[in-house]
Design a protein that fits this description.
single chain, Rossmann fold, six-stranded parallel sheet
């Protein structure tokens, strides 16, 4: 009971934060007051860069760490594999404590073990900074893996609590880089471009030139560390190089495949999640079109936590029963982890998640975005609004059934030509070999090295 009350208080703190902090005037005043705070950062990284260049020229391996919290936020596959092929580098994953970006921070050790096993069984070089004997998380001083030459962070939320060694503040002695954990379409410019985190990194590899322009406009450091490379995750969509795994539940006959991906913002200022309004209706649609369509329920990772502990009328038991229903209906299933193969083997998506709006659009397949209220898209940034003009939309899910019947089942994707032209012009990475290659090439230029792969 006490934990549930604490989490509810935490969520309402977020609401107040959104109302007071995420305003234009706060941003203007903050940028003025802190206008010189980050002037020394480029010089700090210049010293670190020379140290790493010296190490590279001496023939020593460059250690590259990827700090990862959740498997479904692994965006560095292509970058990792390129570095893995280059014998001059030693890339590896470090599983970080369950704190960064998580509003509810419980049971982080079992979660760390789960993430470790996920990457280990898939052949990655992965390190678990945890002492089983002493039952505690290791510190930076105790682990060489936590002292890399280059460090890629998973997301910009770094409330690590007592585990400060994993935060960017304690890693200014290495070259810190970042690929946004999600494709940013919101105009929450402070959160996505101008946190202390963004201003203190060596490099941030953004999705498009539009995002770099936003960093230059809104970040206190004027986006001096911003580079437009494209989004590495989407290399799998734009430049498929491996066989795709069919992750869908077997059916007695071929059916259309639809992903439903509900977001979790039910209390926050933007309240862009439609889940509470359509959760029963989506079950109805799955049953009604069971002979023609199969569905995958792909909820945001935070949705379960909020339903369990913060949403009136919901609790863990009701949420588990609902998730289990989607797992057990003959034409439905649940996906909580990696989703590239899921996207590639689907036919369409229904969703209200920010990043998926851009990510799924880049599969060239039709998608219906559910607009919970007018403020949702009003608060999108320049890139988000451009995408919105080229996808199907629905107010509070009113057009869900017509989208299923006309666009998906009947195959009348009447926006396809327009959508494809937009994707090719604005969302594809400029590097003809993909975003991951763009990041790799940028690292080579900075380190004064020739590409080895």
């Amino acid at each position: 009971m006490l934990l549930k009350l604490r989490n509810k208080i935490r969520y309402y703190e977020i609401i107040v934060y959104n109302m007071l902090i995420l305003t234009r005037w706060y941003s203007v005043i903050r940028n003025f007051v802190l206008r010189h705070k980050y002037d020394s950062i480029p010089a700090i990284y210049a010293v670190v860069l020379q140290k790493v260049r010296k190490k590279a020229s001496a023939g020593e391996k460059i250690n590259v760490a990827f700090y990862i919290l959740e498997t479904n936020k692994w965006k560095y596959e292509g970058v990792y594999r390129l570095l893995e092929k280059d014998e001059r580098f030693n890339p590896y994953i470090v599983v970080v404590p369950y704190a960064a970006g998580a509003v509810i921070q419980t049971d982080y050790i079992p979660h760390m073990r789960k993430v470790y096993e996920y990457f280990k069984t898939r052949g990655y070089n992965v390190f678990l900074p945890y002492s089983e004997q002493e039952q505690r998380v290791l510190t930076k001083r105790e682990s060489k893996e936590m002292n890399p030459d280059i460090l890629f962070h998973m997301n910009c939320w770094h409330e690590y609590g007592k585990f400060v060694d994993f935060g960017y503040e304690n890693n200014m002695d290495c070259l810190q880089a970042y690929v946004p954990y999600a494709w940013m379409i919101s105009n929450r410019y402070i959160e996505h471009f101008n946190r202390d985190f963004h201003n203190k990194l060596w490099k941030i590899y953004y999705e498009t030139p539009m995002h770099v322009d936003m960093a230059k406009k809104h970040a206190i450091n004027k986006g001096v560390n911003a580079v437009a490379t494209g989004y590495p995750l989407l290399d799998s969509f734009f430049f498929p190089k491996k066989s795709v795994v069919d992750v869908w539940k077997p059916q007695e006959k071929k059916k259309k495949r639809i992903i439903w991906a509900p977001h979790h913002h039910m209390l926050e200022k933007n309240r862009d999640a439609n889940f509470l309004d359509i959760c029963d209706f989506m079950v109805e649609m799955a049953k009604k079109y069971a002979d023609q369509v199969q569905f995958v329920f792909k909820p945001h990772p935070e949705l379960a936590k909020k339903l369990d502990m913060a949403i009136p009328g919901w609790n863990k038991e009701r949420r588990e029963a609902y998730y289990n229903l989607w797992e057990t209906m003959p034409n439905t299933q649940v996906c909580l982890d990696e989703y590239v193969d899921l996207f590639l083997t689907s036919d369409a998506m229904i969703q209200d998640c920010g990043s998926f709006t851009a990510e799924y659009t880049c599969t060239y397949k039709p998608m219906l975005f559910l607009i919970a209220n007018p403020g949702v898209v009003r608060d999108w940034n320049e890139c988000g609004k451009a995408i919105l003009e080229n996808i199907y939309t629905s107010e509070k899910g009113k057009e869900i059934e017509s989208f299923i019947k006309r666009v998906v089942i009947a195959g009348d994707d009447y926006m396809k030509v327009k959508r494809v032209a937009f994707i090719d012009s604005y969302l594809r990475p400029e590097n003809p070999q993909g975003a991951s290659r763009g990041i790799y090439d940028d690292l080579m230029r900075e380190l004064g090295m020739k590409a080895g792969v």
